[in-house]
Amino acid sequence: MAKNSEKERGRNGRSYFLGNNVETKAAAALIILCVLYGFRIFQSASFPSTWDEVDFVLAVDRFSLADMQPHFPGYPYFILGGMLFSAFTENNTLSLVLWSHFLLFSSVFPLFWLSKRMTSSLAGRFFITGTVQVSSYLWFVSSQPISEGAALGVMWWYIWSLCWADEKKNLVKKSLPLFLFSILMGIRLSYLPLGTGLLLLFVWELRKHRDINRIAILLTLAVLFQWVWLSALILSEGGIFSFLHLAFSFTEGHFTEWGGAITAAKLTLLERSLLFIKNTWFTGIAGENILLLVMSILLTVLAVKELQGKRIKKEGALFVLLAVSYVIYAFFAQNPEKPRHMLPVASLITFGVYAVLAGKNKGINRLLAIFLILQAANGFYLLKEARTVRPAVYQLEDYISKSGEPSVLYTWEETRMLQYTRAPFTHKRIETFAFFKEDEQNYSGYTVYLTGKALRGFELQGAATKDCAKKVKTFESSHLVDPVYSSISLYEWTCRQ
Hints:
Number of domains: 2
Shape: globular
Structural class: mainly alpha
Order of helices and strands: HHHHHHHHHHHHHHHHHHHHEHEHEHEE
Number of strands: 5
Radius of gyration: 26 Å
Largest sheet: 5 strands, mixed
Strand content: 5-15%
Transmembrane segments: 26-42, 94-115, 136-159, 179-203, 215-235, 281-304, 316-335, 364-383
Organism: Fictibacillus aquaticus
Protein name: Glycosyltransferase RgtA/B/C/D-like domain-containing protein
Keywords: Membrane, Transmembrane, Transmembrane helix
Strand order of the largest sheet: 2-1-3-5-4
């Protein structure tokens, strides 16, 4: 009798502890992922390394858009999560990182559920979910105190909810993607183009029910969900008028001065296009690894060939719409110098390629497995490299602090970091050469330093600086952590009166 029951359990693939074979594999995959996340947390940033990161970290203690804690649009749900996790650690940087990891880890479930719609292969589902999760550049970015990791986690819940809601008749269930989209907007407003998914959901709804009242109800709910975080921001800034003034000022600066939008950047269309492709593919998908780049291109070509002559599923159409919508927005409105802005597209492409290829045959599965393992290994490498070298701005502070001379440093944006670290010397953000010439006269007996960014700003204003600026040192750090200020040159101003 005992032997028969053992045989029966063998036929059913069941055990007393982990259930059937599927459950065993799922449990094993989840344990491996937990170990990888543990390593991520161990190697995560423990201090802010960029201007944006300082904004976020300071906001955990005191939220104020007026004081750039953080900068507009406020990222309220990201900061709220950091505040909640600050109960477990006194390090505000780590609290934001933990919040990002929590949301990103939770996206294992919608990723697996979405993959079930794409392939009947269990191995394929694990490949899809695992590769998106261990993508080396996403691994790297989610370990910084910035909102991209958290936003990517919610993005996958949102995409899954669109597919799930389409199958439901109940309006309450239909409202789930509206709610999740509001959470996504409260974490990272630049993911707004993904709202085209809601428009597609409304189109599907109209085709099924041909009832405009249902659409009106859903639209009303969508507005109310967004109003929750928006009204909180308005109250925090003292009212609608002060909030609008701050919003318009920031938006104008983003699109006309420093934001990197096509209306502000000084790149040609060709230069912007090439940088856009590099940031999406070489950095976003391949983690700046040549082998991963070659493999990703090969896998993409195979996926395109596999799709030829086949009808795209409804879920596939949704993915294409979301990717194209975000690509158009990111190309024209985002800063091309920051690869992290392309993470949504990189993640969608990775998911799509794996969804097409996973489970097709053993040869393809081996390629997918190798790509997954290399992504994880490259993630280890990127984190280790970033932690080995101190950010350039910290090196700059150390150098001037140890000089032992009274010094004043004129910077462009670096002064935000120096304020955070409470640098023991005078430093100022300077924008015009005329003001610099007037102000530096107040520091007789001081060594006057300038950063390369400040100096280039003077040159763009027509100032003759070549004979007066003596290069002292250049500080280098990881360009993945801070693409803009990974290299800082320090100059001494020698034309003193």
